[in-house]
Amino acid sequence: MCRIGAIKSRNFVHPSQALLLMQSQQKGHDNSGFAMVMHDLGGIFAHHKHLPTLSMACTDEGLKLAEDMLHAAGFQRVLQWVPETNPQPGLDINAMPNYVFETFDYPKYFKSATQQEKENLLLDMRLKLRAALEKDEQGFVYSFWPDVATLKEIGDPRDIGTYFNLHEPDGKFTARVITAQCRQNTNYDIVRYAAHPFFLQGYTALANGENTFYLKNVEFQRKLHPGYIGFESDSQCFLYTLHYVHRELGWPLSYYKHVITPLPFEELEQRDDRETLLAIRQSLAHLEINGPNTIIGVLPDSTLFTCCDAKKLRPIVIGRTEDTVVFSSEVCGINEVLPDRDWECDIYPNEREIVTVGNELEVQRWKQ
Amino acid sequence: METMNVQSVTPNDMPWKIRYDASRCTLCGSCVAACSFRAIECKVERRRMVFSETELPEPKQRFSAVPVIRQVKSIKHYCRGCGICEKVCPNEAIRPERNIDTRHPVLIRCLHGEAIKRGGRKNLEAVMRTLDKIRVARISQMTDPSLDAQRHSFDLLAPFGRILPPKKLPMGVTPEGLLEVNRQTPPVRWVYPVIIGDMSIGALSWRMWEAVAMATAYLNEECGLPVRMCSGEGGVPVRLLKSKYLKYMILQIASGHFGWNRIAKAMPHMIEDPAGILIKIGQGAKPGDGGLLMAAKVAEHIQAIRGVPKADLLSPPNHQGLYSIEESVQKMFLSFNAAFKFRVPVAIKVAASATSVSVFNNLVRDPYNIVGGFFLDGIDGGTGAAHEVSLDHTGHPIVSKLRDCYLAAVAQGRQGQIPLWAAGGLGKTGDLAADAFKMICLGANGVFTGKLILQMAGCVGNEMGRCNACNTGMCPVGITTQEPALVHRLDVERVAQNIVNYFLAMDQELKKLMAPIGNSSLPVGRADALAAIDRGVAEKLQIQYVC
Ligand code: SF4
Ligand code: SF4
User: Fold this and answer.
1) Which residue has the least CA distance to atom 2 on ligand 1?
2) Is B17 among the domain residues?
3) What is the ipTM score, two decimals?
């Protein structure tokens, strides 16, 4: 079973906190990988928050290929950070030769482009890079977006931490929002792309559970958007639906819940807004999810949220202090990161709500 | 000795032979009275008896006339194997026996010089059905637990009506951050995923039709199952049109437009909208053929409802003036949508055919979004009357065709926009829940069923040539006849009760199938839940093969 977690703080947080959060829950996952997505970056990326950062693991050839493509497209590199690695013998990690975080300036002719055009360009570029590097596994392109960094690797999370020196906090590599997960995909093949969190155009999602409507979701999503690709994991569907509902349809986040776990018809009939809810349920029937799961998501404005399946078959706990909120599959993870919090204020969300945490750490609970 | 005439008809030429045991028969006459086909008669046979009355044998003979029951030697009044004689005989003295040496199919053509007509279903092969080669193989366990069919709640409903693609929904966000529908959208009704198929009042006896309508109302009002019944072509009793129960009825219009005069006249008096309109283009059991109601069944009340004289009633194979799908969309659908002020969904029923996908594509791409359902009917469906050659040889099996249509929708990202409803031999084994569930996993939103409803009412027909005399007006159990004496054999309350009970059982069984795959709403298109034990089936349906 997966364990998932997220930290959102007023201060910049180092990934060591995410490792700490996940390691105490290691009995619940299989120690087969570690993946995280960081939003609202600090440290060395703090000065380029509006420019896209490429997060990639690749071979030497892959790196050259990617950089050539980016340059040919007119992107100019403004920052490169290659994490120092610590390849001790005996570490359980399936490392790639290079891990690259590079920030680029937009091509000149895009300087006056609209936000929308820029966002489409970034997605387009990432998909092209991904396709180009797919051959012989020359590289894995995880994200290419302003203010976002992604790291995914196969192996024991503790060893992955050691390899990337992530156990030692520093001020270089930090973020205000970190989502993390400690397991490779066991339902399908073990591939780096299958590890959550998944990222698309500012949206991140990760999940603990199963999506038994995977096939229904996939068959529908494939035709909805060019960015809905891969489907290496059934949890990718959660991200794509989030992206579709919130960004493509422009609906408020609360309707995400109505799409993925619609109210039963009987309850729906009793509601004043039944006409709207029924229209949503009808038109988006193929985006409904079934099966036990808990989702954690991040929106482009760094709002962090969580919701569960309609039968609440997967746990999630939220613990908080003045300056930090932590989401975790198990409370023991929160105890590690926030040992001094008032645990009586912990939130155990129910199956019919979305809990959101805004940038002032204000917590909202929306009942479906 | 009589002159031998090899052309004369004998029981051995017939599909069924009567086995009669004179030693058990008390000559009560029940069987002869009960046989609606007049296939048996009372006769007197001359018998010789040899006896001796002395101590030493001195054989003598005596002739006597003995009354017996005999099979009629007539090509017209032949035994259908319905078994009613056996049912009524108190002494087990008589029963029909299948005659594998029958010459009937040849004889009847030779004697009449015209195509054989009959009712019922395809009688050709009895091979293992495709659906029986499919298993629900993806069981939830461990990390994704099964649900509990008794404890959990399930959303067992299917859409009837045109569903808009998400980006076409006329919705806006209010200043309070709420979504609001700001224009009328096509009507969609969420109904039970099993619709009672279109059997007309005329094909059915009035008592049978009433029993089905009663069961439908009961299922809705008392059992909470929103089951809908389709009227079939041929009109609806005015009393029902003006009652609140109209909301459970889907009104059908077919090429004969029978009964629509009355329906149109009743419109101003309707206190409820009908559940939907179904425009019948074709029927799976006899694709390319129109409806057929033999004069024998056009009783007075049928003449009244349909507004016709007593004659063979034939619906043309085509809707007159309908030469293309586009035209059907523009004319028929618009007029029916408009007639009920766009409040009632309008769907289309076609026979499964090699061209079904093109028809479906045309409809799903229509820019007016007015076709509210694609009812696809396969070759194994039933009919009140048809040419035997159509019944046995024309048509297309439903399973792969339904799947083709669903996958065509998937390829265009339009799945669900026109709900798919499938029929044609579903529930043939008596287990409709399993068939319906598999069809749903393959992409159907729901199924519709007719023949099985007759079986619930006591129909004795089967796929191996038993009875299938629905066209004759002589239905031995009062289902497909207008003959008062036969109709009264049908116990309306019992039939309604049987149908209600069957639906209740099926409802439990559907939940029993949803629970192990861990789904609380219908798994439409969840082909990953299925596996086939036959490679060809797996390949064609694009599901996994297992052995
Ligand atoms: S089986 Fe039916 S048709 Fe045949 S003799 Fe008996 S009652 Fe008549
Ligand atoms: S019992 Fe009646 S309905 Fe059934 S096959 Fe015979 S004639 Fe048709």
Assistant:
1) B82
2) yes
3) 0.91
